[in-house]
């Protein structure tokens, strides 16, 4: 652990621009990483922020396209990504309003955006530009483009186009090359050929070389066997040691003395072993995404409460303490939703500890 307050140069609340790069540089130098937790409601946001505050950890909150639509409300039409745009913007404003109260730096990010979802991305960038006009910084800290299903040339070309627009506001870009298995935003990659789950060092260098001409503020989600979700151990193996090879290859090409020039992102963090996580971090992973395990944690808290208090939850009035006893204090969402938040917060703390992110600010 670094001395308390090592990241005190960062303000509490949502950080953008150079501050995001400084955070990732500091993490890469000091061999730790920051978990990125998918948030789908204000309750999930609060549970994650509470955990980060309690153990003095910087934190990344991210919305997926589906998670953003949920934030806006599943009752809204989303045919043209309107709910995903409105929900992402609403989540961002909520997080911006509340994050300073928790006293830790927060990176506000959007998750996978495949080619067919670019209208969602455009909507978020419009919101960034409007916010930038008024406040001199973007609404979000960073966004992810995931063109990993397209050809490498098209992937890089679309990234360059968007990154030029983002760089004007100092927005960080996370891009993906090599496919994450499992499922994301309804894109089913469960049957994808194993070889495409492991990104090649030459491909990473091509990305680095194109994007570094625009701005240093980008990271690469390289496939090293990553899979979204938690499954029985199968035939795909996580190989975080490959990331060291990527660093070496790019370092050799640019030969400027920088041994670890890449900022790398670990997708599919749920279900990974402590050892896999540590190896990834030692090879320059600065961000690890965790969704499935935090979903499970939240559910576990609610489920255990409901099962334990079942006899207080079957009728509005009447429980083991008396036929006339009201059950309001058990079915109030502030009681049972809170139980989900508590277990979620513990899982977030575990992710921070696994990544060496505890006590950093
Ligand atoms: O990579 C993720 C989000 O982009 C999260 O993956 P898991 O759900 O496997 O943790
Ligand atoms: O892409 C993976 C994340 O876990 C987001 O999942 P989601 O698309 O179901 O919200
Ligand atoms: Zn992907
Ligand atoms: Zn992912």
TrEMBL record:
Coiled-coil region list: none
Pathway membership: Carbohydrate degradation; glycolysis; D-glyceraldehyde 3-phosphate and glycerone phosphate from D-glucose: step 4/4
GO terms for MF: fructose-bisphosphate aldolase activity; zinc ion binding
Keywords per UniProt: Glycolysis, Lyase, Metal-binding, Zinc
Cofactors named for this entry: Zn(2+)
Stored Gene3D superfamilies: Aldolase class I
Annotated EC: 4.1.2.13
Function summary: Catalyzes the aldol condensation of dihydroxyacetone phosphate (DHAP or glycerone-phosphate) with glyceraldehyde 3-phosphate (G3P) to form fructose 1,6-bisphosphate (FBP) in gluconeogenesis and the reverse reaction in glycolysis.
Protein name: Fructose-bisphosphate aldolase
Source organism: Tremella mesenterica
């Amino acid at each position: 652990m670094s001395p308390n307050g090592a990241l005190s140069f960062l303000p509490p609340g949502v950080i953008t621009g150079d501050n995001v790069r400084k955070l990732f540089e500091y993490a890469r130098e000091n061999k730790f990483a920051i978990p990125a937790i998918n948030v789908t409601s204000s309750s999930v946001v609060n549970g994650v922020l509470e955990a980060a505050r309690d153990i003095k950890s910087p934190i990344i909150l991210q919305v997926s396209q589906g998670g953003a639509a949920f934030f806006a409300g599943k009752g809204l039409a989303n045919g043209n990504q309107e709910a995903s745009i409105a929900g992402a913007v609403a989540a961002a404003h909520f997080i911006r309003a509340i994050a300073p109260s928790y006293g830790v730096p927060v990176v506000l990010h959007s998750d996978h955006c495949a080619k067919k979802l670019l209208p969602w991305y455009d909507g978020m960038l419009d919101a960034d530009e409007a916010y930038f006009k008024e406040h001199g910084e973007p609404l979000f800290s960073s966004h992810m483009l995931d063109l990993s299903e397209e050809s490498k040339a098209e992937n890089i070309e679309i990234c360059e186009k968007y990154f030029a627009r983002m760089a004007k506001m100092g927005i960080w870009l996370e891009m993906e090359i090599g496919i994450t298995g499992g499922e994301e935003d309804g894109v089913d990659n469960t049957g994808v050929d194993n070889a495409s789950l492991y990104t090649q060092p030459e491909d990473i260098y091509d990305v680095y070389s194109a994007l570094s001409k625009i701005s240093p503020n980008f990271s690469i989600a390289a496939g090293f066997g990553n899979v979204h979700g938690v499954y029985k151990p199968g035939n795909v193996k996580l190989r975080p040691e490959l990331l060291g090879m990527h660093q070496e290859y790019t370092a050799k090409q640019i030969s400027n003395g920088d041994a670890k020039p890449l900022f790398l992102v670990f997708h599919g963090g749920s279900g990974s072993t402590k050892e896999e996580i540590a190896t990834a971090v030692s090879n320059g992973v600065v961000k690890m995404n965790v969704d499935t395990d935090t979903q499970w944690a939240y559910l576990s808290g609610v489920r255990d409460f409901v099962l334990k208090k079942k006899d207080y939850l079957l009728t509005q009035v009447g429980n083991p303490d008396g036929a006339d006893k009201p059950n309001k204090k058990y079915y109030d969402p502030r009681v049972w939703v809170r139980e989900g938040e508590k277990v979620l917060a513990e899982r977030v703390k575990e992710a921070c500890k696994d990544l060496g992110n505890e006590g950093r600010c």
